[in-house]
Amino acid sequence: MYESYYGFSERPFQLSPDPRFFFASSHHQRALSYLQYGLDQGEGFIVITGPVGTGKTTIARNLLANIADENIVAAQLVTTNLSPDELLELVAAEFKITVTGNSKADKLQAIEQFLIGLNKQGKRALLIVDEAQNLPAETVEELRMLSNFQLDNKPLIQSFLLGQEELKTIISAPDMEQFRQRIIASAHLKPLNEQEVKGYINHRLAQANYTKEDLFSDDAFQLIFEKTLGVPRKINIFVDRLLLFGFLEELSNINCKVINEVAQEMSEELTGSLNSTSLENNRKSQPLLPNSTENVENIKNVLREVEEILEGSIQQKVKMTRYIDKLLKQKSRELAELQSNSTEDK
């Protein structure tokens, strides 16, 4: 890809959460501090919420990567809509607990015996539940029941819940009072502000061993902030595409003109739609009238939008073809150099 062109040791804006690229904004640092505090306490629940793409999973990975206490045995669940029984099965699987029997009682007994065994070794269990907003209220309650496993008045397992804002609604329900009383800290992540976006981008570039300072113009960071709204995942997607565009066009600097051009190409990805909802609503609310001037205009508008989409798709394919051609030429040059060096050695 573009790594060698810009001198990166690796792609700096990958989507996969990587603790090495963790950027401690004020909100993220506070959330991480709460997680660490909860870990030190060894009991209760920690709840971290935030919009999609704000870095909840990255925080969890960062915490796991930096756990210095060898006596903490951690497991991470990425949940879907699990029933309480399915949750227990997943907990047993992640901690590699052997369960004899299929009843809920069998699973609970196996988990409890595992936790007691850890306690006898001077260890304790940490369960990190990601995407916790997908859990039904009764499954969240099952997590609370697991926290009742104790020995000598010390909890045997601790849970961290990471989820989108819907998780707040679940926990705030009247019948979740007992669960709320077990929460010892909570934090809500927000998108990055303009200054943090600049720091975030420069931090990830530095992690990829990029040493120059002029890759982005001074006003580029402000525009990237406006296009991505400061959401880290959108920043990763957008800047990754900017760098690919820069590589294809052989650019050494990414300026506002480039950013606007790429943003236009990526408008569907950055906004999440092409106004398909409003188009669909128009179709439902306006009956087809063959002789209606208004209907003819609607059809023309739809056709124009389809034309724009097709044109954008064609442009993207042309760019990708150019990229492949350029990559093949680059590989061909590298192969020729290797063959030349091999001949000289002989």
UniProtKB/TrEMBL annotation:
Domain of life: Bacteria
Domain AAA+ ATPase positions: 42-236
Residue ranges that the Swiss-Prot or TrEMBL entry lists as coiled coil: none
InterPro entries assigned: AAA+_ATPase (IPR003593), AAA_22 (IPR049945), ExeA_AAA_ATPase_DNA-bind (IPR052026), P-loop_NTPase (IPR027417), XrtA-assoc_ATPase-like (IPR017466)
Protein name: ATPase
Protein's organism: Colwellia marinimaniae
